[in-house]
Every structure is written in structure tokens, then in C-alpha cells.
Amino acid sequence: MDLLTGLFTTAFLAGGVLALAALGEVLAERVGVVNLGVEGLMAMGALTAIATVAAVPSPSIGFLAALAVGALFGMVFAFATVILRANQVLCGLALTLMGSGLASTIGRAYSGMPARAVFPGVEVPILSTLPVLGKAFFSQNILVYLIYIILPVGLSILMFRTRHGLNLRAVGENPAAADAAGIPVTLIRFAYVTAGSALAAGAGAYLTLTFVPSWSDGVVAGRGWIAVALVIFAGYRPIPAVLSGLLFGFITALGFVGQARGWPVAPAFLSMLPYLGTVAFIIVPVLAFQRMRRIMAAPAALGLPYYRDVR
Amino acid sequence: MATFRFQRIPSASSGVAFAARAAAILLALAVAGLILAATGADPLDLGWQVISASFSSSFGLEDLALLVTPLILTGLSVAVAQQIGAWNIGAEGQFYAGAFGAAVVGLFVPGPPAFILPAMFAAGLLGGALWILIPTLARAYANVNELITTLLLNFVAILLVFYVSTSVWRDRTANSATPRMSAEIPEFWGSVHWGLPIAVLVAVAVGLCLAFSRWGYEVRLVGSNPSAAKYAGIPVRRHLIAVMLLSGAIAGLAGMLEVAGTVHRLQGGISNNYGYLGIMVAVLARSSAIGVIFSAALMAFILNSGIILQTQGLTTSAVLAITGLILFLTAIGDELAHYRITRDKA
Q1: CA B87 to CA A44: how far, in whole Å?
Q2: In chain B, beta strands by DSSP E
Q3: CB neighbours of B4 closer than 8 A, spacing ≥ 6?
Q4: What is the mean pLDDT of residues B41-53?
């Protein structure tokens, strides 16, 4: 495989993790809830997937099991933050600590275990014969198509082209007004936080069922936090979120290619690239494009619990 | 007939918040005990082992004291930033940066300990402050969320320390650590070094400054209502920068004390998650600088229990999970503490 094809293949594969987790976070943040538990949810999802395929060698069942575990944790988080209205930052950090801690505690039994079943590549007829993209994109596993095409387009239409989408954005911008208009604020928040958490755990499962494909302690390695940052960078929109995931896939791929080709840079420094890149990418656009701020702004009620009876 | 209803009040009573914390800790430990029981262990027996190992010998108490020292400082680091309304989730990275700075001096600068130790002290403070500099400036001048930027830099610091201690500065005899540094913080009780009194003193000094100085008053005002503070002519941005740099420097100091007092080498994983546990310490203390000393002691006991139970198959990641559960329950308790039950006569 030549350099360019290899770079693109790894970029699409690596970017999928971040893109899926970022999509989940877009769902939660659009209805006004910051979910900082992504890192922990991904760890639980990654472990669930490995443990499930160890018992039942079917990647689809592993992925679905991870989604279910993510939804379960998401409901616990949503119960605390949406229904009891506890502090979202604290609950999110707590979820990250619980998820990561629990996953590495249970995961000791699976340490170094490769996934017993992984998602195979699917070659799309005709398109897979394209020069670079054919190998890099149109021969990937089925989740890649789900993450890069179906989910972002579907969510984008749902959010910006339907009445329900208008409602859910209203819940994130001004829950009091949404409530007055008869939109079920608590229900919508609960549902989207749960769905977002399921996608985050799905991102973890993607990690261990396609990209890495094995379990080791700390396999998530901060990707959940990068995903949270990407949502800001993407202006809380599904398609830009997926594209920025891909961008970071490239940065990761660059590090891999560098290591494989023996570039005179220590691997540790190449591994730093995604983190430093994320910091740069959430600071630089704010400084460079002052006018972008309004378009890219966070939902107005982001992070604020909604009290119907307290003004 | 009288009916009861819940009414939300703007500020929680501190008594209820304290009770909520106690309940959260007990509940989390009970859950942990139940899980242990489900795996076939006897939680009461394990609990007794932990208590006797921690308190029945001076070694146990020394271990606790060595864990308290960094936890006071990382907790203080998070708490100080909270006072001005900033989330420093990067105490872990600043800890590594402080340890790195101290190691640069300790490994490469020749001289008597009386000169080297203060230089390491300064390098630790500087390392921590430098590590939070970019998130600080980004928050102060571009309003970029400091929570995520400080956190992401943790991974960079961890990779940096891992790299230098396993390759360029590696000790030929040790596998993954630098050579032992000759300058050491003297010990005053068994293996407990002067870092502990220093950490307590720093916490008390910061607490007094926040409570009684004009600067502290202004910082707290910015934390509780930034726009009111700005309207009152308080230099919000200057205070924010100063407090965040102070927060980073305190976490860096924790790293320096760990290197110069406890470990004497720089190595990967030197922080034991102290930075993340510091978040818990600060939350339990309700961001009070003095309260941090007590909640750090509690956290040290929980961490130490995890270390003692490692022989029973428990890991420090299990401690992290239990910590997360305590944090989760505390967050819920804090919100519930805002409610009072009123009774209307109808």
C-alpha cells in the first residue's frame, strides 16, 4: 500500500472513534446538557464489546451490547442531571472516573486479549475501485459508513429540517420558552442524553472491534476528552463534528506513519500530536475568526439545569 | 389538611451539605462492600484489615502521611481555581510538569542541598504554572473553556515524563526511572518528610489570604458573580490569570515534593492519579482551602485502603471507580441540600 492510501485508510479508521463519540456529545449538548462522562462511557463500551465477543463471537452483538451499557449509564447520568438537576460538570467527571475505573478493574481479566470477532471490511461495488479513496474509504467495515455517512446526514436532517429538531434545539437554547410552548423539556433532555451516551459507548466498542482490536488498560487514552473538545470546534453540528473527527484521524495517522517510517521524532512526541492539536484547534479559531463566534456559539442554556418553578 | 411540598432555596445550608457528603461516602463504601461480597470476599474482614494496617502501626500512619501531602496540594489547586469560577482539571498534568521541573534541577544542577532544594522548589512551582499558562491565557483573552484545555495537557505531560524517564534520562540500572537525585527533603518522622508541614502551611496561608485579604475578597466576588465584579471595577482578567497560575503552581509544588521527598527519581506514573483525586478532595471540601486538609486526609485513607487491598486483588483503578461513585452521590446530595420541606395549611 502506498503512503497516501495508508494515511487515508488509518485516518478514516482512527477518526471514526472520535467522530462517533463527538456525535453523541452533540446530541447531549444540543439539548443543553454537558456530558463530560464520554471518556468513561467509551471505556465501558470498549470493555463490554471485548467481553461480549469473547462469549458470543459476533461483532454486531458486541456493538449492540456496548450501546445498551452506554444507554444504561446514560440513564443514570440523565437521572442525576436532568431529573434531580445535580451539577453536570461534577456528575460528568464522576461518570468518567466510574467508567474508566470500573472498566480497568473488570478488564484485568481481558488484559491484552484480542477481539475474538471484528467487523470485516465491506467493499462497495464500483466505488472500491477508485484510486485512493476506493481502498481508504470504500473498503472499510460497515461502522465506518454508519459513522461517516448515515448518522451525520440523518442527524443533520433531524436537527435542522424537522419540527422535532426545532423543538430539541429550543430545549437547549431556552428551556423556559420551550416549556411554555408545550415541549416536554425533561423528556427530550433525558432521551437525548441517553442516546448520546449510547453512541459514546459505541465509540468505545468501535475502538476495540475495528481499530485497535484488543483490550488493554487505558485503551481509550483521552479520546473521550478530545471528542468533547471537537464538539466545540465543530460548532455543535453533526456534519462538522464528523469532519473534525476525520481531521484528528489524520493527525493520529500521521503519528503512525511517522513511527512506521522511522521519522527522527520520538514516538512519545508523535503521540502528543492529537492532544496538542486539539488544544490548538479550540483556541486558534476563536482568535482568528471573531465573526464566526455567533455561528459557532454553544446552545444558550448549555450546562444549566432547568427549574420550572424557580425564576 | 396540611400538605407538604419541596421548595428550592438559592443556597444550600452547609450542615445539610456536610451530611450529604458523609452519606455519599458511606453509601459508596457500602456499594463497594456489596460488590466485594458478591465476588466472594468478606467485606467486614477486609475493612478490618484496612483499618488495622492503616492505624495500628507507625508504618501505616507514615504511608497515610505520605499520601496526604500531594493530595492536600492537588486538592488545593482545584479548590483555588474554583474560588474564581475556573475548573482546573489539569492538576494531574501540572503535577507531572512540576515533578519534571524539579527533576531538571535535581539531576543536572550541581551544588549543596541547601541551594538545590530551594531551586527545585522554584522549578516545581514554575513548571506547574507554565503548564497552565496556555489554558489560562486562552480563558482570559478568548474565553476558551479551561476545563478541556487543562485536561488535554495532562496527556502531554504524562507522555513527556514517560519519555524522558524511559529513554534520555533513564538510569542504566533502573528500568524506567531516572537516577536517584542526591538532594532530598529531610525526614522528620520515619519516612515522612517536611513536605507535609509545607503542604499544610500552604493550604492555611492560601485559606487566610482568600478569607481575609482584599485580594481574596475580590477573587471570591469574581467567582460568585463576574459581571457584578467587573461593574464594581475589579480587574477580573488580572485576578483570573493570577489565580489560575497560582493553581497550576500549587499542583506543580505537589509534583516537586513527591520527587524530592518521596520518590527521589522521576518516573512514569509518579502521580498515582493525585491530580484527578484532587478534584474529589476539592469537592468534598466545598472548595475551602482549610477544608482541603481534612478531605485530603479522608481521600488518602481511601487511596491507602485500595493500595493495602491490592494483595486481595483490588487495584488503584477500583479506588478511582469508588471515588467516582462518591463524587456522583455528592453532586446529587449537593443539589438535594438546596431543598427544604415546607408545610402549607390548607
Answers
A1: 25
A2: 2-8, 187-189, 192-193, 339-345
A3: B341, B342, B343
A4: 83
User: Which ipTM score applies to this complex?
Assistant: 0.92
Query: Are A39 and A97 within 8 A, CB to CB?
Result: no
Residues of chain A contacting B162 with CB distance shorter than 8 Å: 268
Helix A163-173 vs helix A151-161: angle between axes, to the nearest 10 degrees? Answer: 80
Q: What is the pLDDT of residue B346?
A: 56
In a domain, A253, yes or no: yes
Interface size A-B, in CB pairs within 8 Å, comes to 130
Q: What is the pLDDT of residue B341?
A: 79
Give buried/exposed letters for A72-93 (b at 16+ CB in 10 A, else e): ebbbbbbbbbbeebbbbbbbbb
- CA distance, residue B131 to nearest chain A CA (Å): 12
Q: What does the block give as the cell for B235? A: 480587574
Question: CATH number of the domain that A220 lies in?
Answer: 1.10.3470
Q: What is the pTM assigned to this prediction?
A: 0.92
Domain that holds residue A86: 3-116+131-296
pLDDT tens digits for A39-53?
A: 999 999 999 999 999
Residue A86, chain B, CB below 8 Å: the answer is yes
Contacts of B152 in chain A (CB under 8 A): 222, 225-226, 229, 275, 278-279
Question: Is position A308 within any domain?
Answer: no
- The total domain count for chain A is 1
As given in the structure block, the three cell numbers for residue A269 are 512526541
